[in-house]
């Protein structure tokens, strides 16, 4: 097993499209690193750069301590699982599993033994003599996984491997993947646009946008302390609310304290931030941190537009001074579209971002 | 009710089409088995007296084996060359990025646009100066100029259809470019290789103008030329001509039957989702 590191990697396509700019990123040995980002953010390109299927424009790629920047994929000893599985259609499952070993001229007995053990652990024994066309989507997915595992590579790369599965199978395979990672202790880099996959699987998550790294952190850190407005909006469901406003000092506070008042868009709350008063900022509020409360306790009055019952909770879409504000309420509360509700922000729940750059403005205390 | 009528009508049209297509072949076989005298006196849809005289004459009197051998050599070699070179060219066209690709593709196609008749004389002069008149290469090379573009175009199209991820997967699995070509791409391209082979072979097998112009005597004449030259000054030996036609059709029909299964098989099914 080995770490994978990108050092100041740029990738510019011939047509001028920039897929990665000055990207430095490392998946530590044995780590499960997830790359997330919207489509076109360059996350799949990063994976293909690691695999050697694309060449960097500049920068260095290391696997272990070896510089593999100029090595073709076949010399990097990594395995990749493709979004569409990419099983070899003219070969049986057995031959698909053994391909990577037989092409490296491994002894037949060893190939047989490895294929046997992998097929047993993935429940593929009954399918070994079938062709990919005769398999269901879930079975193909497992064969693709098996083909990667059989080789015992230095690291695994996954390119949205679950996106072609139906919802139930996706959750099952996700659990299976987590189990595999624990069992193999292998370095894994996993690309997805699905944040629930990212949050549940990743030891750390790297958020990409337009080929630039936004933040790398553990799932909890990413959720609790997003580095900028983009990450804040991308991670978390329903998405974070954003309100424009300015900061001012607290009454009786000489200034320079760790808490200031955010004011704007019909909201006035105290936020943990030490940016100077007068700064133009954006307040980020997670729907989970907005409570629906009796009128006397609320600080925000907004009009309910739509209510989505989710069983364990309901998502309340409201309008506040023509801006959308989403809140999550307990299921037993009766909320009617068209009515006014009072909302209260949980303590210290606000995230403050610079209005211009979108960068998080924290406080010295935290 | 309308549904049933529709099916009836469909069936009737189908039968009519099959009859229309097959009748010439049927008639050629019947006529090739009927004595010349009977053929003109009382033509009949069913062979009354079956004789093999025409076939016998074909091989005893006319040495029809020579043109068959010539055709097999010329068509076979052309097909083999076209597939070898065409597959590599098509791979480059479909998978590699290089400058002027579109122009090259257009140029390849443009080669086939010349009317054959307009290049016969220059080609003749060219071949004569190279001392290739009345030789196998003298036919194979001109055939390749016409068959190769077809090969390249068909194969480029079909290689493009093969998901690129398969080769990527092979590379990551440890295959070199050549290995991914021979172990992944080629097996998957077999159906279209077979189709192309058949088309090229049939084209060369049936070609007449070049074969007539660039051969001098019976030693190098191909089947179509030989058959055309059956007719004498005073008589047309229809029985023998049709017998020759039947014999000439047989290898092509056999080849199509052999490859048919390969062509029909959707080999890429199940490779990727979709």
Give the topology.
The complex is a heterodimer of chains A (366) and B (274).
Chain A: E1 4-12, E2 18-27, E3 32-36, H1 43-51, E4 58-63, E5 66-67, E6 78-81, H2 93-102, H3 108-122, H4 137-150, E7 155-159, H5 167-184, E8 187-192, H6 195-201, E9 204-209, E10 212-217, H7 219-224, H8 229-234, E11 241-248, E12 259-264, E13 267-272, E14 280-285, E15 290-293, E16 300-309, E17 314-320, E18 323-329, E19 340-345, E20 351-354
Parallel strand pairs in A: 3-8, 3-9, 6-7, 7-8
Antiparallel strand pairs in A: 1-2, 1-4, 4-5, 9-10, 11-12, 11-14, 12-13, 14-20, 15-19, 16-17, 16-19, 17-18
Chain B: H1 2-33, H2 36-41, H3 53-60, H4 65-95, H5 101-111, H6 116-129, H7 136-161, H8 164-173, H9 177-206, H10 209-213, H11 223-228, H12 238-264
- Overall spatial form of chain B: globular
Helix content of chain B: over 70%
Along the chain, the helix and strand elements of chain B come as HHHHHHHHHHHH
Shape descriptor of chain A: elongated
Largest sheet of chain B: none
Question: What separation lies between the terminal Cα atoms of chain B?
Answer: 38 Å
What's the end-to-end separation of chain A, in Å? 36 Å
The structural class of chain A is: alpha+beta
Strand content of chain A: 25-35%
Biggest interface pair, counts: A-B, 37 and 26 residues
Total number of β-strand segments of chain A?
A: 20
Order of helices and strands of chain A: EEEHEEEHHHEHEHEEHHEEEEEEEEEE
CA-based gyration radius of chain B: 23 Å
How many helix segments of chain A?
8
**What fraction of residues of chain B sit in β-strands?**
under 5%
Radius of gyration from the alpha-carbon trace of chain A, in angstroms: 25 Å
Quick take:
The complex is a heterodimer of chains A (about 375) and B (about 270). Chain A is built from eight helices and 20 strands.
Description:
The complex is a heterodimer of chains A (366) and B (274). With 366 residues, chain A is of the alpha+beta class. Chain A contains eight helices and 20 strands. Chain A has helices at residues 43-51, 93-102, 108-122, 137-150, 167-184, 195-201, 219-224, 229-234; strands spanning 4-12, 18-27, 32-36, 58-63, 66-67, 78-81, 155-159, 187-192, 204-209, 212-217, 241-248, 259-264, 267-272, 280-285, 290-293, 300-309, 314-320, 323-329, 340-345, 351-354. In chain A, the strands form four sheets. In chain A, strands 6-7-8-3-9-10 form a six-stranded mixed beta sheet, sandwiched between helices. In chain A, helix 2 (93-102) crosses helix 3 (108-122), helix 2 packs parallel to helix 4 and helix 3 (108-122) crosses helix 4 (137-150). Chain B is mainly alpha-helical and 274 residues long. The chains are: A alpha+beta (366), B mainly alpha (274). Chains A and B meet through strand 6 and helix 4 of A and helix 8 and helix 9 of B.
